[in-house]
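Entry for the shared binder. Reason: the reviewer on the internal report wants the predicted structure included alongside the sequence.
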Amino acid sequence: MSSEFDLIVIGAGPGGYIAAIRAAQLGLNVACIDAWRNAQGGPAPGGTCTNIGCIPSKALLQSSEHFEQAGHDFAAHGIGVSGLSIDVPVMQQRKAQVVKQNNEGILYLFKKNKVTFFHGTAALKGGNADAGWQVAVTGKDAEQVLSAKQIIVATGSVPRSLPGLDFDEQRVLSNDGALSIDAVPKTLGVIGAGVIGLEMGSVWRRLGAQVTLLEAMPDFLAAADAQIAKEALKQFTKQGLAIHLGAKITATKVLKNGVTVEWTNAKGEAQTLKVERLIVSVGRKPNTDSLGAQTIGLQLDERGFIQVDADCRTNLPGIWAVGDVVRGPMLAHKAEEEGVAVAERIAGQKPHVDFNTVPWVIYTAPEIAWVGQTEQQLKVAGRAYKAGSFPFMANGRARALGDTTGFVKMLADAQTDEILGVHIIGPMASELIAEAAVAMEFKAASEDIARICHAHPTLSESLKEAALGVAGRTLNF
């Protein structure tokens, strides 16, 4: 097998494997290196997203949502369910199968596109852009050294732990352990009420756990539009999630049968939380510790992120970085777009990635999704805007589904009517947001959406109605 390539991609997560495939499509001889292993020790490309993130979490969310619907919603449809139970090992087996299918799909795509895959840990060893950069791969066999004039680093991120509270994945859980719980705990604590905390908390709450979330920030979902966040907090609290904002952790103790967390609330009052298991979801950090950046002089910032320019170029010619290891949101789809763009730049093209139209999604129930600016951001910027909204309770399809929680909100420039942001909380928000992202990418006005014919009855009509609302002329509310 050759050890010389046009491009080496380090990491086969969403940014890495997509970059490798796109570069191969453009005629480059590409190698991709990835260290993830499945239970049998074989390759498991797909990174955190496929193995312990996006994909398995959605599998468990789907299973737990079915369970909750069977126990609470089916009766309204005339469907009787008796003896309802949950078999967690079977649910976990299904999750594992979904992950396996995605792993195998990526390996198939590598073969289809003639990307050479190396299973092992990669480290930058030396070289230069003229003679080629050297990358050592350590796997089951002896170390081998590959070389290429172009390198893309896409090593992703790892969960951040709390000082003095390491992950043991039994009592103190990262997202990996949170996805692998083998029985429903009676009590579950979650430190951090962000995307991971809310999604994992929702899974186990639906299955019967008493879930408490401790969030350090004084505001709930501060990155989301304030009106959306307010509705989300109301709905999650109504479901039974105990969410405490402004919580400061003062001490933790891991016991044989659980974890004790000492904390103070927003008023400064001392509190104690005792739970069987504790999920820590206080953010993620770039996975660059074992990359060998110092060996070749690759610049990192004080937090371990690889420093890049707007086009993902590092300080070293021929070396690029994408995804969670660089600035910007830690989102799989952001990594994918950067990966494609870098592959095309290496091939001589001039692509563009607009971070303003990168959508955000939280896959809870109700789902939450947004793209563009929030109302509070527009106010801080001093930009004049108009707002329109439409509740799902007035949408015929939502009524038929029996899921009328939430609303669609659209923000547009007061003078030009250009759409500046769209925010959704409600059924299938993750799918509905795509129309908004397309509209914003093409600099559409709210009137453009308002005048497009949407099929009836569909949830997407709510987006049209919100657009009509910008002009104060909703038709169904």
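Summary line for the report: Residues 20 and 381 are 39 Å apart (CA to CA).
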